[in-house]
Design brief:
binds flavin-adenine dinucleotide, alpha/beta, globular
């Protein structure tokens, strides 16, 4: 059988593409070598947020901030916690992935795909997981093979052994201590997760601050929050070597000025970024071009250098979020099957790191706006000026608003706050709607929600921050 669309991978990008294609009446086949559903549901978003919620519950019990309320954090049964997470993942995989494929009517072949047939007549060769081989022919192809952890070349690391985000979330016993290599989204979330479960954690970041691609005020706020919780932070740090075995490891850390120190850890977790998965696909042979980090190069419509092959999701080297993967996947299918010419608009893309307080942003940073040659008017509001934070007795964090000085147009919002992830959707709408600071300052925001911080930071453009109140309309 010749399909209309053959998809390699079964993650967020692949599923969105398949649903769009089936809605348009096209025949679809999917090839997946691992677990159906890909990273997000199996080893990414879902398990990490499930475990973070559990860790937050334990942390809250042991660090009670309300007078008159006494709670205590007990020991963690990691096997039970991991087992509960696995059950939740299996349920979400069944309802949101395998069940959907059955409902919409497309086949998923369990196996590893590679291109054959050359650029003019591409075909997929599938080595099935059960041993056989199946050729798959289609009018159009979509590569949605995702990304995998990048492991830095550190002397001794392979021999000593290390965890990745996926294997760390499968632990059934907690180590006493852990070194987390990488202080960006995944590293920060997992560092706080294990710290809140009782592990002594240190985060080592190669650049000079945690969350190094966010606003400096955001980095400072999250470093303070980690410090408050007793999570060790080493920045501008190179891990030069690792020694040890499965029971004890020590890492030599070189910090600014060439100072070296060796510290012992029960486990080392590598969270140093994720790189596109393209090895073994024979992309060269199919006439598909890749970039320096292995990412598949596409045009704005997700088309690769081969006009019959499309790519979407983490494999394209763009922002690594499941909703970006899904948006690209559905556009790729519509463009491949109907020449729809649809593109993804990233201008107000919201992003969240699910630490506590969370880091959330949408749009440009101050530095990015200035790099565009636009004069910036920015305001930073401490969370101590947001009533929601005051009554909840958690004023850790900031809200920063980036606006064009000449027009007042809001171009970016960056927040560290409990609930920042909820606030950022409103910020994304404001940026997309091209609202000005004055319009955001006058927009409704329910009193005693964290989203009010957005309105208050906008009001801070014309008022003294310390005097802002619910009545400052
Ligand atoms: C710890 C962690 C937490 C995260 N949290 C969030 C979050 O909270 N929110 C969010 O939006 N994003 C989050 N992400 C990112 C998100 O998971 C990814 O951006 C998203 O899952 C990418 O989807 P994808 O479809 O591009 O690829 P994937 O979901 O990775 O799917 C690719 C699939 O292709 C298969 N494959 C690869 N090569 C072949 C081949 N040759 N043949 C057959 N199959 C193949 C793989 O087995 C895999 O299943 C997180 C990621 C991690 C690691």
């Amino acid at each position: 059988m010749r399909y209309d669309l053959a998809i390699v991978g079964s993650g967020g990008a692949a599923f969105a593409a398949a649903i769009t294609a089936r809605d348009a009446g096209a025949s679809v086949v999917m090839v997946e070598r691992g677990t159906v559903g890909g990273t997000c549901v199996n080893t990414g978003c879902v398990p990490s947020k499930a475990l973070l919620a559990a860790a937050a519950a334990r942390h809250g019990a042991g660090d009670q901030r309300f007078p008159g309320i006494a709670t205590q954090a007990g020991p963690v049964d990691m096997a039970a916690l991991t087992g509960g997470k696995d059950e939740l993942v299996a349920g979400m995989r069944a309802s949101r992935y395998t069940g959907l494929a059955a409902d919409y009517g497309w086949e998923i072949i369990a196996g590893t795909a590679r291109f054959a047939g050359g650029p003019d007549a591409p075909v997929l060769e599938v080595r099935r997981n059960d041993g056989g081989a199946t050729p798959v022919e289609a009018g159009q192809y979509l590569v949605a093979t995702g990304a995998a952890p990048w492991i830095p070349p550190i002397a001794g690391l392979e021999q000593a052994g290390y965890l990745t985000s996926a294997t760390a979330m499968e632990l059934t016993e907690l180590p006493e201590s852990m070194l987390v290599i990488g202080g960006n989204a995944v590293g920060l979330e997992l560092a706080q997760l294990f710290a809140r479960l009782g592990v002594t954690v240190t985060v080592a970041e190669a650049l000079d601050r945690l969350a190094p691609f966010d606003e400096p005020e955001v980095s400072a706020a999250i470093e303070d929050a980690f410090d408050d919780e007793g999570i060790g932070v080493v920045t501008a740090a190179a891990i030069t070597s690792v020694r040890g075995d499965a029971t004890a490891r020590s890492a030599t850390i070189t910090t600014a000025g060439g100072r070296e120190r060796a510290l012992a850890y029960g486990q080392i977790l590598v969270a140093a970024g994720r790189r596109p998965v393209t090895a073994g696909l024979n992309l060269d042979g199919a006439g598909v071009k890749t970039g320096r980090r292995g990412e598949i190069i596409t045009d704005e419509c997700q088309r690769t250098a081969n006009p019959r092959i499309w790519a979407a999701g983490d494999v394209t080297g763009g922002p690594q979020f499941v909703y970006v993967a899904a948006a690209q996947g559905s556009r790729a299918a519509a463009n491949a099957l109907a020449g729809a010419g649809r593109t993804v608009d990233y201008a107000a893309l919201p992003r969240v790191t699910f630490t506590s307080p969370a880091i959330a942003s949408a749009g440009l940073t101050e530095a990015e706006l200035i790099r565009q040659g636009v004069a910036c008017d920015c305001r930073v509001l401490p969370l101590s000026a947001v009533p929601r934070a005051i009554v909840a007795r958690d004023t850790r964090g900031v809200v920063k608003l980036v606006a064009e000085a000449r027009t007042g147009r809001v171009r970016g919002v960056h927040a560290v706050a409990d609930g920042a992830g909820e606030m950022i959707t409103a910020a994304s709408y404001a940026i997309r709607a091209r609202m000005t600071v004055a319009e955001v300052a006058e927009a409704w925001a329910p009193y005693l929600t964290m989203s009010e911080g957005l309105r208050l930071v906008a009001q801070a453009f014309s008022r003294d921050v310390s005097r802002l109140s619910c009545c400052a309309a």
